[in-house]
TrEMBL record:
Provenance organism: Pseudochrobactrum kiredjianiae
Record InterPro entries: Homeodomain-like_sf (IPR009057), HTH_AraC (IPR018060), HTH_AraC-typ_CS (IPR018062)
Record key words, sorted: DNA-binding, Membrane, Transcription, Transcription regulation, Transmembrane, Transmembrane helix
Keyword Repeat listed: no
Residue span(s) of domain HTH araC/xylS-type: 253-346
PROSITE patterns: HTH_ARAC_FAMILY_1, HTH_ARAC_FAMILY_2
Domain of life: Bacteria
Keyword Ion transport attached: no
Name of the molecule in the record: Helix-turn-helix domain-containing protein
Coiled coil: none
TM region(s), chain numbering: 6-22, 34-55, 61-84, 96-112, 118-137, 157-177, 189-210
Length: 358
């Protein structure tokens, strides 16, 4: 009977995920390449894991270690590309080359001091894990290139990736303790299980972030770059209020929330303000993130459509700016405390009572 190691099954699952994401990918879009390469490397790593522990082919171990050094930096670059106003800049070699240094160090250690390569991986994962959590510390609005309809999912994916990198460090320490305590009796099982789970979670996190990246890197009807205010000086309360007032007008008069590909970068272009200033203004004046702010307008529009039309809920989902029904239902429940169908039923019942009383 042919034995198929579990990591190979994980590879197939990630392959299906990547295939689905590539089907949705806009032709010529280059800024999602980090995530695509990242998921692809996860797949290769999973294959190597299956060869190592499924068929006991130990010759793949150096390649596993080398790929691990690539994964940490690539994971950081993938999420970092969602935080910059010009995502194409993140693809330039001057942004990438510093993250090649850990790979060069690990490669050198594999050639000359293989006993130190595992320690180097621990340090690399710890550094990049902390770096990702530091990005996450700035809040969801830091992901300016992520679609507002899914920015919270992308934000959670970034947090999970950072925690998983740090978790790998903890697992490595447990393995070292196991070798010290029992001579490594439990280490093979620990390595196999934790690696499979890590690859599954990391692959899913990268897929979520890639799926929630906007496909239009030009920002729709954005103002010319020369007209965008680029100053990063601190703003006064009055300036924050002015930004929010302008944004309110843009939402109500232009119905900008109906754009399903809307993100913070695109809003900033329309306002001719840096994304950080827009985020700070909304947080300071409204006490919420930009994604919640926009979704509040979307839910308000959905309520109007549910109350005034007979359109199906699915159609109203897209008409109000939501890309997925699951996110629509979640945000609608958050704002109104009920489901869209319950809201419509309540409105119908209210109208019947009003007509009867008249």
């Amino acid at each position: 009977m042919l034995f198929i190691p579990l990591p190979f099954v994980v590879t197939i699952l990630m392959g299906l995920l990547l295939w689905q994401l590539l089907r949705k990918r806009e032709a010529g879009n280059r800024t999602d390449q980090f995530f695509i390469v990242l998921i692809s490397i996860y797949m290769v790593q999973s294959i190597l894991l299956g060869l190592r522990w499924g068929y006991e082919i130990t010759a793949v171990l150096p390649l596993q270690i080398l790929l691990a050094s690539i994964i940490a930096g690539l994971a950081y670059l993938s999420f970092y590309s969602l935080t910059v106003a010009d995502s194409v800049q993140a693809l330039r070699i001057k942004k990438i080359w510093p993250h090649l240094l850990p790979v060069i160090v690990v490669f050198s250690l594999l050639l000359f001091r293989r006993d130190l390569a595992a320690l180097a991986i621990i340090v690399i994962f710890l550094i990049y894990g902390v770096a990702l959590l530091w990005l996450a510390y700035k809040g969801p609005d830091v992901l300016i290139a992520a679609r507002l309809d899914g920015v919270l999912r992308s934000y959670r994916a970034m947090q999970i990736t950072g925690l998983m990198l740090i978790g790998s460090v903890i697992v490595d320490l447990l393995i070292n303790f196991d070798f010290f305590w029992s001579g490594g009796h439990y280490s093979p099982s620990i390595i196999l299980v934790t690696n499979i789970l890590s690859l599954l979670f990391l692959g899913a996190a990268a897929g979520v972030a890639l799926n929630n990246r906007t496909s239009d890197e030009n920002g729709g009807e954005a103002e010319p770059a020369s007209q965008v205010v680029s100053t990063e000086t601190a703003l006064t309360t009055e300036q924050h209020i002015a930004i929010v007032a302008e944004l309110d007008a843009l939402m109500r008069e232009k119905q900008l929330y109906e754009d399903m590909e809307l993100n913070l970068k695109r809003i900033a272009h329309r306002l001719r303000k840096p994304p950080r200033h827009v985020s700070e203004a909304v947080n300071r004046c409204r006490g919420i993130s930009v994604s919640v702010y926009v979704n509040n307008f979307r839910v308000e529009e959905a309520c109007r459509l549910l109350r005034e039309t007979d359109e199906p809920v699915t159609q109203i989902t897209f008409a109000s700016g939501f890309l997925t029904k699951s996110n629509f239902n979640r945000e609608f429940l958050r704002v109104t405390g009920m489901s869209p169908k319950a809201f419509r039923s309540q409105m119908v019942a209210s109208d019947v009572r009003d007509n009867a009383s008249n």
